[in-house]
Structures are given as C-alpha cells and as structure tokens.
Amino acid sequence: MPPPPTLVKPITRLEGAAPAVAAEDAVAVEEPLEIRFGGRSVAVVMRTPGHDRELAAGFLLTEGIIRGRDDLLDLVRCRGESGDPSSNLIDAVPAAGVVLDEARLTRHLFTASSCGICGKATLAAIRGIFPSLPPSAPARRDVLAALPARLRAAQAAFTATGGLHACAVFDADGNLEGAQEDVGRHNALDKVIGRALLEGRLPLAGRIVLVSGRVSFELMQKALAAGAGCVAAISAPTSAAVEFAKESGQTLVGFLRPAGGPGSPMRMNVYAGTVAG
To answer: Is 165 helix (H, G, I), strand (E, B) or coil?
Structure first.
C-alpha cells in the first residue's frame, strides 16, 4: 500500500500575542520515487505518493523515452531490500524491440519536486524532441473563465494541506477529464498525461491543460509531448514558456483568476496563440 498523500503532524500554533497552543496540522507527503526502464534507473523524482504508474508513464512520454502506449508492456513495482514490493520503486517494462535511448537521458538522476529544466543538457535538444502542433480551433474565453473553480473543486488534498499543486485536463466545452495533485507541478502534469496515455486518450488535441501555479518551459514541453494545444495557468508564465509556446504553436494563458475579490469578473493574459470571444 502506498503512503497517504497527507499526514497529520503535531504543531505549536502561535497567533498574535496569545499563548502558544498545541495542535495538529495536515501536511503534504513528499517521498522519492525511482523510475526504471527495463531495469535501468532513469530518474528519482520527489513526489506525492499515489498514481505512481501514471506518473512514471507520463514522465517517460514527456521526456521522450517512449513515443506512445505501444512502447510499454507494463509498469510494475520493484522489490526493495526486504524482498517485498517497494512503494518507491517502479519499473517500466518495454515492449519487444523497444530499447532505451541513453542520449535522451538529459535530466540529472535526482529531480526535486520544484525542479525546472535545471537538469537538461541544452534547450535545443529539448526543442528537437517534439514537433510543433498544427493550427486548431482556439479555446473559448467563457470556457477558460469557468475552469479555475472546477479545478479548485477537485483539489481535495490541497484543501487539507495548502501544500500541493494541481493539474487538470478539460475538453473544449470545459468538462473535466482528469485531475491530479502533487508537491511538484511537473509531477501533477505527468500524472494527468500518464493516465491519458494508459487509457489510450493521447494526443490531447482540442483539450485545455490547466495548472494551479506558474507555467515553466518544462510544463509547456510536457504539454506539447501530449499534443495539448492550450495551456492555462492560475499564475504567471516564464519568458522561456512564452517563447516555447510561440515556437510550438501552442496557446498560453496566464493569470486566469478573478480581477478583484471573490465574485469579480475573471481576467486572463494571452501570451501566445489566440482565445475566441
């Protein structure tokens, strides 16, 4: 059994000048997961336990190690030192004829949950893995405006801890197709993409990917690997994310949030591509 995504820890609560109070608080779990491909270790990611098969599958796809569902025979738990299946070791069993291209292992072996592209060999190498997207119908303004509330409703672990990122995939009409939470933004996206991969729902053409925080170059690259033409974020994009979106033919929307207090009109900044309406 994997550990729960949250744990209750004892704390001392201080408020103003009032005396200290002993209390408890839920915190997000962060543990390492070693991902192997055909028995070869390819990465150790710090993640929130749960949906590890999806995380591994999504990671392998978005890193260019596999090209699609047919490249995977299975994803299995490895045995730890005790001989029992370990919750922190997972091995992707490649399909017949699929071999590991070691040239694609451009990430440092250890990847923190907050890591961006720090472990990549060169930006040019990343840009060369996945082709740009063809033109498609733009996302609608009214649909985008409704998505943050729908994502927030799916963030059960965030409600308990305040310490998890979230990522969701919506169809063109704003219907939720999948959502995941994790301490790492890129892990949450890999989990969403991995589930779509294992269920045979890639590419994510015509879908909208929404992330709860900022958008980095790496998140745009992962969305491109999944064929997602529109990425929206509650927070800001980085300059590299904007340039990548323009080069890849993706729509990038940031600061998708109320303009003022609760109930105020939704605002959004379109950094790349177009939004209808």
So the answer is: strand
Half-sphere exposure of 25 (CA within 13 A, CB side): 11
Q: φ and ψ at 167, to 5 degrees?
A: -145, 140
Specify the pTM.
0.85
Cα gap 244→266, rounded to integer Å: 26
Query: What type of residue sits at position 75?
Result: L
Angle at 95 between CA 91 and CA 96, to 5 degrees: 130
The Cα–Cα gap between 265 and 59 comes to 36
Domains of the chain, CATH where assigned? 31-127 (3.10.20.10), 139-276 (3.40.140.10)
- Per-residue pLDDT tens for 73-109? 999 988 766 667 678 899 999 999 998 877 666 554 4
Give me the phi and psi of 129, to 5 degrees please: -80, -40
6-39 pLDDT tens trace: 788 888 887 777 887 888 888 888 888 999 999 9
115 is catalytic: yes
Contacts of 43 (CB under 8 A, 6+ apart): 34, 35, 59, 63, 107, 109, 110, 111
The distance of Cα 126 from the centroid of its chain, to the nearest Å, equals: 17
CB 183 within 8 A of CB 164: yes
Q: Which of 78, 115, 118, 167 is catalytic?
A: 115
Distance CA 273, CA 250 (A): 6
Whether omega for the bond prior to residue 5 falls within 30 degrees of 0, making it cis, is: no
